[in-house]
Records
---
Amino acid sequence: MNRTILGGSPSIKELLNLIRRVAASKTNILVTGESGTGKELVARMIHDAGPLKNGPFVPINCGAIPENLIESELFGHRRGSFTGAVNEKIGLFETANDGTLFLDEVGELPLPMQVKLLRAIQERVFRKVGGTDDIHVDVRIIAATNRDLEVSVAKGLFREDLYYRLNVILIKTPPLRERKGDVELLANHFLKKFGGRFNKNFTGIDPEVIVALEAYDWPGNVRELENVIERAVTLENNTRITLESLPSALRNAARTRIAIEIGGGNGKPNSHAGEIRLPAPDFSKGPIQLDKILSEVERAYLTQALNHTRGVKRKAAEALGITFRSIRYRLTKLGVDLGTSDDEEES
């Protein structure tokens, strides 16, 4: 199992350097970032390089456990302490003793639970539900969230004292759109992973697929890229990943990265991503097929606008300064299929 963040972009190099610097201590750490950016992987890397690496790494998703059970999950309970407590239970704090407790989505904790968590983190002491004895543990606390906890504190949804107790060191995981140089590396890594899992032999990924992957914004980040490659490996019948095995949103992202060259009228990838290059026409080579060139320009702008608005045609029309009826007409004329619904009515 890979427990290393892959990438060579500046943001990833900075992240890896910070992980190395903080791992040697037992200091509380708060990891923030969008969903799918590898927050748990960061926590595991810190644990594996830290003084408690021989102890357990115990993760808990604070947002996935019902409010009435979260205290029992964290601290355990005595037999008979509440209805259904037929046996004594060891909580995750105790399970993580001499190791790391990873509190994922800590911003989802209800306020009453935050009070009890604060004492446990401050003193490394807690009591089981229904218990009277203090239990002492030696655990490292790493918390993670995709929320802005400062905003939650300001709204009274998250305790300020708990926030500062967790946020001794802050680590931010960069979204994939800010580390585009890593997309190809990650795609090939996932290709090898799923090719082996599904017993398929691939020789690589077509260049236009890389163009599409690097053009996409990746709202789901690395997790979404992994899912896209798994899908492609599953559907692909060739020995290379081709555009046809990508979702429509990614195929259309590729079109916006194609340079339009007047000479032959054929688009091909270029190093100036996102540009439409229109060199001076050379009439000595014959007609330049102006209608075809203008159609490709129109297609590129329509596709870019729809990608920008996540396929919402009305917003794309506003971005282009045209009416909703006009964008529907142009999309139909050009045969652009972006998987968007056509059931919107013009007001």
Note: The two ends are 54 Å apart (CA to CA).
---
Amino acid sequence: MNSKIIANGILRALGILLAIILVVFFFYKIQSVIVYIAVAAVISLIGRPIILFLRRKLKFNNTIAVVTTMVLLIGVLIGLVVMFIPLVAEQGQNLALLNIEQLQTNVEDLYNQIVTYFEFQNIDVEQSLKDSNLLSKLDFAVIPNFLNSFISGLGSFSIGLFSVLFISFFFLKDSKLFEDGIMTFIPTGKETGTKRSFTKIKDLLSRYFVGLIFQILILFIIYTIVLLIFDIDNAVVIAFLCALLNLVPYVGPLVSGFLMLLLSMSSNLGESFSQVILPKTTYVMIGFVVAQLVDNFFSQPYIFSKSVKSHPLEIFLIIIISGILFGIVGMIIAIPTYTAIKVILKEFLSEYNFVQKLTKGL
């Protein structure tokens, strides 16, 4: 091996490394576009069963089926906006005109009532809170600032929404558009297996995302009923936010539980803690626990068994590992990614015993 061959090898390695760096940098710069494509792909998977129903049962042609599906999806989105925007705007106006000192006084009054109540119950909680000096550290003026930041972000959101809807339309109209783009990178001889994998992945993930919608809907209905029964302000908004947080496995229910607890207590600021706030909040949290039991023992097992065909323990481990490696985003995309990997393994590596056991039932 002479110096020329070594030099060529080094230059080739440096060229490959530079190409990889440039590709990573390119994807980093267009990450917003990648997010648009990913969201559009999810929407197309959700809309796929509707299109198939319209084409097979009602005999719509492809274009009319796609337009009808997009109108339905946009209609649902507009319905949510019409339902929530007035409530959010009302709260925004209240926050914009908020008397920060009065809010802090109300929160401190609630704190004093809680301390008095627990002292009556022979539970000493004041000392630890006093040591932390928590109330003095709370900056209530950040609430209007957050609102202003939120409103300023609506412009970017509008651009993103238009981009997602535009891409979704073409993904729905030409379901093989994304698939054909991937096929250009597939080696010769692997096309047939890859197409079968795409079809299987689309079927599984369509059922999974539709199942998630029903899961959120069930939680939303239960939360709304509970909050309305106990006359919590903005019950629909709170129920929707708490149900939506359930998209984040394991962590989402904890955050939604804390959010419901906090909003339920703050809904009755100025009332007696022992006679009004504590009983109402307790009943609301009992309703929250019931909703979570329904979700954990009915909704989730049904979704996992009927859509991604994976054991709950298997799903739990995958979500935890993804969360450790990639954070909240990893937990959200863990199940779809794992399902796609299983389908690909079964298609191309089914001769191995490990793969046969892992993909049993697919």
Note: The mean pLDDT is 76.
